Amino acid sequence: MFVKIFGVFLILTGAIMVIKSEWFLKNFGRIDWAERKLGGTLIFYKLAGIVFIFFGMTMFFDLFGGIVYWILGPLLPK
């Protein structure tokens, strides 16, 4: 139950980050690394929001454990 609630929280946070990225820029400022490597801080906020939405949806639909095991499975002992 907690995982689903946290998943919804991540989805909503990510959606707000994508929709209101200019608000984040005004309130939190520019990120030098994002300006140099990604081409802008707005892009960074939008990409971070999309990542939050992705992880939130995987948590909400109980796919997070499977994805983590798929990524880290070769590193884990058998």
Considering the chains and any ligands shown, give keywords for the structure.
78 residues; mainly alpha; flat
Architecture overview:
- There is one protein chain.
- With 78 residues, this protein is mainly α.
- The protein is built from five helices and no strands.
- The protein has one domain.
- Helix 1 packs antiparallel against helix 4 (41-60) and helix 2 crosses helix 4.
- The longest helix is centred in the middle third of the chain and has 20 residues, at 41-60.
Concise structural overview:
The protein is mainly alpha-helical.
Basic shape: flat
Summarize the helix and strand pattern as letters. HHHHH
Question: What about the largest sheet?
Answer: none
The chain-level mean pLDDT equals 94
Q: Would you tell me the structural class of the helices and strands?
A: mainly alpha
- The share of residues in extended strands comes to under 5%
The total of beta strands comes to 0
The amount of helix comes to over 70%
**Unreliable parts:** none
Taking the alpha carbons of the first and last residues, their distance comes to: 30 Å
User: Radius of gyration, Cα only, in angstroms?
Assistant: 15 Å
How many structural domains can be distinguished in the coordinates? 1
Number of helices, where a helix is a run of at least 4 consecutive DSSP H or I residues: 5
